[in-house]
């Protein structure tokens, strides 16, 4: 909640300065799923900073038990109803079921780096084929697709070839303090990375 509130405070500050603000995602852990008023806590923070929901995305990881699944479904459905983007984080990292993305109204699927082919991997390698089909499936069912762990230009091209529009990884930037991220918002560094 501290991190979520910090993000909301920063977004409010950026908006007050007239900046174009992208959607910012914040991870919540499985521990949060047992909170019966998690949705209420999230909404209270958003409302305190008078933010439109389009600026926020809540990332939740895959679950392993029926109880966790039911809590996850309740929370994501509530967030979705409130217009808050939701993301299933690290998809493909655990022993997950495709039922997770069939049954819960996600907006975004974040593909775990373990499914991203490494440089030099052939197209017929099982990882390459899995990645291609997971991205295709996400696109086909209308989920925004993000791939984690992108570290090389070859991987950027692989994402482009497979129509995955969003990359997350060290190729573009390591995790940044807020002041450095604000430089990105102003368009200062990293302008030539996709060339």
Describe the strand arrangement of the main beta sheet, using strand numbers.
1-2-3-4-5-6
Shape: globular
Helix-and-strand structural type = alpha/beta
Global mean pLDDT = 87
What share of residues is helical? 40-55%
**Sheet bearing the most strands, described?**
6 strands, parallel
| Radius of gyration computed on alpha carbons | 17 Å
Query: For this entry, what is the oligomeric state of its chains?
Result: single chain
Number of strands: 6
Helix-strand topology string? HEHEHEHEHEHEH
Secondary structure tally, helices: 7
N-to-C CA distance: 38 Å
Low-confidence stretches: 191-195
Keywords:
alpha/beta; globular; 195 residues; 6-stranded parallel beta sheet
State the gist of this model.
With 195 residues, the protein is of the alpha/beta class. The chain contains 7 helices and 6 strands; from the N terminus they run αβαβαβαβαβαβα.
Would you give an account of this structure?
This protein is α/β, with parallel strands linked by helices. Helices cover 41% and strands 15% of the residues. Strands 1-2-3-4-5-6 form a six-stranded parallel sheet, with helices on one face. Helix 3 (66-81) links the parallel strand 2 (56-61) and strand 3 (85-91). It is globular, with a radius of gyration of 17 Å.
Question: In terms of topology, how is this protein built?
Answer:
Layout: H1 2-16, E1 24-28, H2 38-48, E2 56-61, H3 66-81, E3 85-91, H4 99-103, E4 108-111, H5 126-140, E5 144-148, H6 153-161, E6 166-168, H7 178-185
Parallel strand pairs: 1-2, 2-3, 3-4, 4-5, 5-6
């Amino acid at each position: 909640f501290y991190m979520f509130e910090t993000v909301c405070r920063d977004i409010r500050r950026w908006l007050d300065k007239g900046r174009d603000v992208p959607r910012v995602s914040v991870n919540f852990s499985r521990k949060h799923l047992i909170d019966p008023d998690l949705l209420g806590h999230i909404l209270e923070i958003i409302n305190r900073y008078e933010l439109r929901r389009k600026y926020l995305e809540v990332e939740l990881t895959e679950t392993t038990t029926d109880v966790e699944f039911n809590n996850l479904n309740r929370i994501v459905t509530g967030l979705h109803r409130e217009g808050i983007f939701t993301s299933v984080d690290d998809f493909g990292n655990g022993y997950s079921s495709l039922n997770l993305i069939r049954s819960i109204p996600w907006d975004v699927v974040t593909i775990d780096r373990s499914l991203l082919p490494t440089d030099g991997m052939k197209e017929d390698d099982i990882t390459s084929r899995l990645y291609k089909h997971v991205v295709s499936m996400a696109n086909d069912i209308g989920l925004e697709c993000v791939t984690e762990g992108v570290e090389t230009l070859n991987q950027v091209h692989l994402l482009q070839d497979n129509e995955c529009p969003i990359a997350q990884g060290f190729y573009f930037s390591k995790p940044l303090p807020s002041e450095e991220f604000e430089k990105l918002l102003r368009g200062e560094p990293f302008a030539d990375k996709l060339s």
